[in-house]
Every structure is written in C-alpha cells, then in structure tokens.
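Appendix B. Raw example, untouched.
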Amino acid sequence: MTDAAPMRGVLSPVVTPFDADLQVDVERLIRHCRWLLSHDCGLAIFGTNSEGNSLSVDEKIDIVDRLIEAGIDPARMMPGTGCCALPDSVRLTRHMVERGCGGVLTLPPFYYKGLSDEGIYRSIAEIIERAGDSRLRMYLYHIPPVAQVGFSLDLIERLIHDYAGAVAGIKDSSGDWSNTKAMLERFPGWGVFAGNETILLDTMRHGGAGCISATCNVNAPAIVELYRHWQDADADERQSACTALRHRVGKYPMIPALKATIAHFTDDPDWTRLRPPLVALDTATVKQLGAELEAAGFAMPGIAARA
C-alpha cells in the first residue's frame, strides 16, 4: 500500500473458481480478474460472493501472491481479511499491506452473536495496532443479514476518530437504504460504498464512494458506466437497467447463479463448481438462467471462452 487516496469506484467480490478436487483454480481466477479490470472494475477478492469464508488463510495469501505475480495490480485489490480468529485477521491484513493492496475489507468477528460495540471496537483496534503500518486502508464490512454482527453509527464514529486514515470506509450490505443514507449523512466525504448496485445512483447522489456488488462479476461494464455517468441525464435509465439485471440473477441463489452465468457465457461448465456447503445449480437451471439472460439481450462483452 501507498499513501494514495482512498479507493473509490466499482469493485467486484470476485467469484472463486475451483477445480475437480475443489482446489482454487488460479488460472481461471486470473482470467476473470483481467476481464473485470478491463472494464475498470476493482477486485474485492475474498468477499462473501468469493466464498471467502470457505478459503483458508494460507490459500488467501497464496492467491494474492499469484495474482500479483501474474501482473494483477495490487492497488486495484481490496481483499477480505476479517476472520473469526484475531491472529488470522492480523496475519492476512499484514500480508495485504506488505503486498501493496489498495485496501482491505474487514468483517467484524462474526461467530459470537450479540456482541457489544466495545467488543467489536477492541477487535478492529487490535487488528490495526498489530498490523502496525501507516499504509493500512481498512474498509469495514457491514453485512448483518449474514454475519448477524455489524457496525453501529456510534462505533463507526469512534473508529474513524481513533484511527483516522486507517479506517477509510465501509461497505454497507445491510440491504437497508436508510442505513446507507444515515452513514452518508453522518460521515460526509468518508468512503461509503453501497453493498449492491441497486442503490448506486442514490449513493453517489449523497456523496458516496461507489459500490461493491456481487453482480459486478457478470455486469461490470454497465455498473461501471452507471458510476461514471451518475450525473448524466440518462442516469436513472442506467440505474433501472442495472437493477433489472440484478433482480433477474437474484431470483436464484446468488453465488451459484453468478458462476452459472460465467459458465454460460464462457462455455466453461467447470465454472459452476462451489465448495461445500454451497451447492451448484442443476444443469437444467443453468440452461434456464442462460436462456433468460440471452432473451433479455444480456452479454458479457470481451469475456474469454474456456482456454
């Protein structure tokens, strides 16, 4: 990391391909990262839709190293580093800082429920203190529908006050626009990212930083264009189109649907694999989703067919 400005724009929680032995298929991952970057979409690897919590610490370190070795710019990466175990979070965070990643996306400790703000504060503070690097840019990951643990506004304010610069922003995946709006209003100029593109336009109109969204994995070109042109006369039309695509894919379980969509447009059925406990869509459903997307005129421009 450098002392560059905090990250902004559109990032994808990059889906993770697996081989027949359920090991990470890094070559497929590299190809997909390059496609995303070709459309100016950043890489929030190891997010929820990356099956990030199905990957070990060692795997994550190895994947980042191999992406960088392949020429992927670490400044465009915001790896997920929040784990249940404090030493794991610290180790990952340190490594991502040392490798020059543009930021890290940090879940609160999420196994124990009903946590106090004080407990969550201490966890985040320990990660920052033990990472011990002024280059750290941490983005909090607020996703209470899944983690059932989150960041209150008062807690966010305390972290920003005590760790100005290091706590650079938040991804709000609460699914509640009123919560995102409250963050934008209480912390003007801070890095608030929408948790999906359906509220990207509203987020930008209220001073937000962009969005980090699952469907960027397949619809990055349109979502990035919405971000770029949010002040244009056709912004509402762009937003409606992005929202419609999100809802079309979201009729199915999201992670399997994203992988099925990539499999369809790359003609590569190996993309449909998931690590247990997640389960892939059946063959008929994969075909149905692909047909629905094509009938709607959807495409993934520039996506490479299987090698």
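End of appendix B.
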